[in-house]
Amino acid sequence: MSLIETDICIIGAGSGGLSVAAGAVQMGARVVLIEGGEMGGDCLNAGCVPSKALIAAAKAAQAMRDGARFGITPVEPEVDFGAVKDHVAQVITTIAPVDSQERFEGLGVQVIRDWARFTGPDTLEAGGQTIKARRFVIATGSRPLVPPIAGIETVPYLTNETIFALRDRPAHLIIIGGGPIGMEMAQAHRRLGASVTVIEGAKAFGRDDPELAAVALANLRAEGVEILEDAPVTTVSGQAGAIKVTLKDGRDVQGSHLLLAVGRKVHLDGLNLEVAGVTHDRKGIAVGPDLRSSNRRVYAVGDVAGGLQFTHVAGYHAGIVIRQIVLGLPAKTSTHHIPWVTYTDPELAQVGLTEAEARKAHGDALTVLRQEFAHNDRAQAEGKPKGLLKVMVVKGRPVGASIVGPQAGELIGLWAFAIASRVKMSAIAGMVAPYPTLGEISKRAAGAYFSPKLFDNPMLKRFVRLVQRFLP
């Protein structure tokens, strides 16, 4: 078995691992990248990319049904489900070269396509070779969680790893899990012609502001998605094409297909972390704010770091690690400025504290600003006036923003920047937004923070009257 000595060895070629590899090698470090599965990881092959491609197709289908309000005769679209999946596959194929083995080898990274296994605190084996590195970065991501439901081992089920390969439209898709993945897939499949029932043991969109979540849920229900909340599942049974899900209250839900979307579990199987002296549990690798593990040579990024499970978080972690292991500079993570988006229609977006969290943390020092999309001219012109922006402000600076409405995922970027950079509300209020755009809603919210001081201030009014008397 040959020996490879390198500066940095990265395990996992998903978003976090690829970002570390590209940054480190281009700055002069020797890099080995190990991947036993597909280059690009879950996001490219079974997550963000295929789901958004499917959502785009579903949006096109729904547009054909929604023409009446614009004076266009609505029609029921004829959906070729197999062709839709061809579109999904084509999008993956188009993006794949950016994450490919060929590209990274062209950058100077040594890529080994195999599963890695630690053999000591500074060595591991993969591809019939021993790799000895100054630093290791574990970026193996996560996989769909299969809950311990009675009967699940005997029933065919789908996860995000398998549903995009399904070429025949489900007659009735049952989804267990009312989080982002479950709700995105529910609306997309409903718009593409399937009957859909979502079963959630607690509240759908449970991580989001309840007031805003209610807006999104109302639209999904209006489109025909059945959503059962506070409905724990006790058993599943049946066979392909005839699935039965039994709820705790005794109700049965019948469907043709079952999708599990109840969360993710970190992927650490087979790494032999005990030999490397890396402390971990079912939530992930134990790391500090610098993402370093109990073994000072080993870092973790992305889902396996045990925090927020988003592709953009893995990319953010990569930057934190690169500063330390490539440039030797101190760096630490924070989560207060990390946004997330659920790409239903309307979209749900969040950064920083929700209203409930902000009230608990800041009490009477908190100001909550509200702007409705109904007062935004572009939203009216587009026929999408349903939605709301909330901004949580403390001492003149935003500490959180919640949005439900058209393009909420695009609009949240401004507030993510403002919170990360500690921008004052006055700076956002002073921004000139083009008219008519949805982005004006953020400027109006910032302006509303100052309205009471400007328009409900008796002293200011007396001053203005005085100025008017003496102006030439």
From TrEMBL:
Keyword Transmembrane: no
Binding site for FAD: K52, T140, G141, S142, D303
Cofactor binding mode and count: Binds 1 FAD per subunit.
Cofactors required: FAD
Disulfide bond annotation, renumbered to this chain: C43-C48
Pfam families with a match to the protein in the record: Pyr_redox_2 (PF07992), Pyr_redox_dim (PF02852)
Keywords carried by this UniProt record: Disulfide bond, FAD, Flavoprotein, NAD, NADP, Nucleotide-binding, Oxidoreductase, Redox-active center
InterPro entries reported in the protein's UniProt record: FAD/NAD-bd_sf (IPR036188), FAD/NAD-binding_dom (IPR023753), FAD/NAD-linked_Rdtase_dimer_sf (IPR016156), Pyr_nuc-diS_OxRdtase (IPR001100), Pyr_nucl-diS_OxRdtase_dimer (IPR004099), Pyr_OxRdtase_I_AS (IPR012999)
Coiled-coil residues: none
Gene Ontology molecular-function annotations: flavin adenine dinucleotide binding; NAD(P)H dehydrogenase (quinone) activity; oxidoreductase activity, acting on a sulfur group of donors, NAD(P) as acceptor
Residues annotated as domain FAD/NAD(P)-binding: 7-317
Keyword Plastid found: no
PROSITE patterns: PYRIDINE_REDOX_1 (PS00076)
Ranges for domain Pyridine nucleotide-disulphide oxidoreductase dimerisation: 338-445
Cited SUPFAM superfamilies: FAD/NAD(P)-binding domain (SSF51905), FAD/NAD-linked reductases, dimerisation (C-terminal) domain (SSF55424)
Binding site for NAD(+): G177, G178, G179, P180, I181, G182, M183, E184, E200, G263
Stated family: Belongs to the class-I pyridine nucleotide-disulfide oxidoreductase family.
Protein name, entry field: Dihydrolipoamide dehydrogenase
Species per Swiss-Prot/TrEMBL record: Pseudotabrizicola alkalilacus
